[in-house]
Specification:
Radius of gyration: 12 Å
Strand order of the largest sheet: 1-2-3-4-5
Shape: globular
Largest sheet: 5 strands, antiparallel
Helix content: 10-25%
Distance between the termini: 16 Å
Amino acid sequence: MPNANEIVYLSHSNIVFTSGASMGEGIAYLAPFKDRVNLGLMYGALLPDPGKLLEGTGKNMRHIKVKKAEQLEDPALRALIRAAIAQGNPSA
């Protein structure tokens, strides 16, 4: 996302990547935890997930628990990120 904005939300301890200037235009987020980083996709429920990587039960939002750096090389994870970027924010 070459034109993405990064918004740091200290109250939630995460970084949101947006296509605009507000959280409402969010595409993805990173949330650090002690043993992992959650990679969240704001509209992940709308994305194809043949690798069954996405977790969560919300109306739109889904996340992937990244526990090892090697996971970042997974083609299924990369495909989800590309799909989320291509989809953008359907509510925008």
